Amino acid sequence: MIHNDVVGIILSGGKSRRMGSDKSFKKIKKINMLDLVIERALKQVNSLAINSNSKRNALSKKYDLEIIPDCIKGNLGPLAGILTGLEWAKKNNGNCKWVIFFPVDSPFFPNDLVNKFMDNLIDEKIVMAKSNNRLHPVFSMWRIELSDNLKKSLGKGIRKIEDFTKKIQTRVVNFSFISYDPFFNVNSPDDLKRANDIFELLNLEEGNLK
Hints:
This protein is of the alpha/beta class. The protein is built from seven helices and nine strands. The strands form two sheets. It has a seven-stranded mixed beta sheet with strand order 5-4-1-6-8-7-9, with helices on both faces. The chain has a two-stranded antiparallel sheet with strand order 2-3.
């Protein structure tokens, strides 16, 4: 199910220090991680953009998606990417109420992520994923009106997602950890090898081995 009031942002603004080069274009079974994330995200949201601070021209040529750099300079981390996504959605999507964020280095997130985030919402402002007793704060969905508050907090030096969200009404959604972590994060060459194994397992389970 696609939710028309939810906009998706792929966070690809990091420096990929541990990987040695841009993680977006690292391949899992000959497929770029960015391609894998785009494919999964477009099954769940009607509008999608990429937050990236490098290779904007190359990305623009390959993908029919808007490429948006951080709205605050200085490579301030995921919170800057989240603010960028919120402000972009507010400006470009009049019907948007929520923005969900997909880290480019976690390509195995559930196909029903948005549905589970949207289920049983009351008056929460942020929804986060959790698996195997571990919180994944970057895999989160934010109310669009949080942008002003977040911008002020970044201006005051707040850099960690948890430091901002602890003051905001937040819901945590647990996801099953069966044979792999659906939020497995590919940070290093060793992680990339593990990701190839997960890819085969995941696609066998979904009946879509490529």
